[in-house]
Amino acid sequence: MKAARLRVMGAVAGLMGLWALVAGGCANEQQKKGHELYAHYCMHCHGENGRQNEGFNWSSMPDPKPKDLSNKSEMGTFKDEEIFNTISRDMKDTSPGGDKIGDDEFAVPTMPTFKYTLSEDEIWAIVAYVRGLHGMKLEFKVEERKKELTEHLQAAQSKFDQSKQEYEAAEKRASDEAEKKSAQLKKDVDVDESSYAKEQAAMTQAKKEFDAAQVALNNFSTRPGKGVNVARPDLTVKPDQAAKLAEVGKNLYANKYGCNGCHSLAEEGGKVGPALDRAGFRLNGTWVYRWLKNPQAMKPETRMPALGLSDADAKAVVMYLNTLRAPKAEPASDKPAS
Hints:
This protein is an all-alpha fold. It folds into 3 domains: 21-133, Orthogonal Bundle (Cytochrome Bc1 Complex, Chain D, domain 2), CATH 1.10.760; 144-221; 239-322, Cytochrome c-like domain (Cytochrome Bc1 Complex, Chain D, domain 2), CATH 1.10.760. It has 12 helices and 2 strands. It has helices spanning 2-41, 43-46, 72-75, 80-87, 120-133, 142-185, 197-221, 239-255, 279-282, 285-293, 295-298, 311-322; strands at 264-265, 268-269. The chain has a two-stranded antiparallel sheet. It is flat and about 105 Å long. GO terms for molecular function: electron transfer activity; heme binding; metal ion binding.
């Protein structure tokens, strides 16, 4: 009896050890993936170890500068979800009269969003890596999140299927009723669409919820912009409209999408991307528009993230960039001063 009990305890201990090994392996894989993503998308501003003035772009960025990610006393005050939401958020217009921003809402234009560039799983991997920079571990249960999304999709599918059946049944009843009246009156009678309007509205809403649940689950594992090509835009505008749009684009450039965090004008601004002083001469408007909407569709490994620009915002930024036509810099002269 005692030997059997010891064997059971040994088996349980073995399973627990195996579980710990698997969990540790998953955590290590997550950290590894997070490190790779951090190195590609974050290190130029935040530095290899998350310290201020460590990344090559840090000192060139407008204020406020990136936080010290290695500072546990500060970073430890944030929940995992708060760090995730900072990385995966919609950009806000921070100019006076711009978007409404809550007191606890993060809205620094020069910190880009990766909501439209990376999968949810990849963003959680970055959060896990960032946690390691200040000596903490990710507590959020990522696999449970995936399970939750899967169950939500299944529930949304069932709801849609049910509402579709109810709609089809109501539509058939209305059609049968119209046929019956037609036979009685010996003339055509229109189907009373209002009799199944309620079921139709319910089905439409259920379809929206199902589509949203499907997108959410897809985006957990798949990058949102993958395989999405941007259609050629119509950039034809009257000169006075172009000037107004350019002003809007100028504001968006600095105050919403923080382009100056990575690009410079007159040697002011970030050094990650190319200087844009002469963008109006060298860049094609259609190309810029498509690039702004989905950079990864044109160059998969680019560091520039998709920032979720609306069609209108992308058009305005294109118009602004078209106005940037600084004179070409004169080459340095080798002639000695007299």
